[in-house]
Design brief:
By secondary structure, the chain is an alpha+beta fold. It contains three helices and four strands. The protein has a four-stranded mixed β-sheet with strand order 1-2-4-3. The radius of gyration is 15 Å and the shape is globular.
Length: about 110
């Protein structure tokens, strides 16, 4: 299903970025930006390495591939390349999940949709 331009106030991508082929990630983020209204927000939450030496076995087993890939480091760059403004990164209450949030610019990128 294809959504129209500027259809949403917010878009989320939770534990999904690392499942998109690296060569397709910029296109995916561009598409997320296309469907956001001006000033809309994009939240990407994904695996991140532990900041302390303590590691839980379950996240490491389930998301070890994603943690090693560091998808949030990539997400920051992808959002900036797509023209998002106010791109910030933060931790969540789950130590192995972080978030990157960006705001869609006031000018649209509808040319990417054509």
């Amino acid at each position: 299903m294809r959504f129209s331009n500027a259809a949403f106030d917010a878009v989320t991508c939770t534990l999904g970025l690392h499942h998109i082929a690296p060569a397709d990630r910029q296109q995916a983020v561009n598409e997320m930006q296309r469907v956001l209204r001006s000033g809309g927000r994009l939240l990407i939450a994904d695996a991140q390495p532990h900041k302390t030496g303590v590691r839980s076995l379950l996240p490491q087993l389930l998301l070890g591939h994603a943690i090693a890939e560091r998808p949030l480091d990539q997400a920051e760059k992808l959002l900036l390349a797509a023209g998002f403004i106010e791109v910030t990164r933060s931790d969540t209450t789950v130590s192995w999940i972080g978030a990157v949030i960006g705001t869609a610019p006031t000018s649209s990128i509808t040319s990417l949709a054509d």
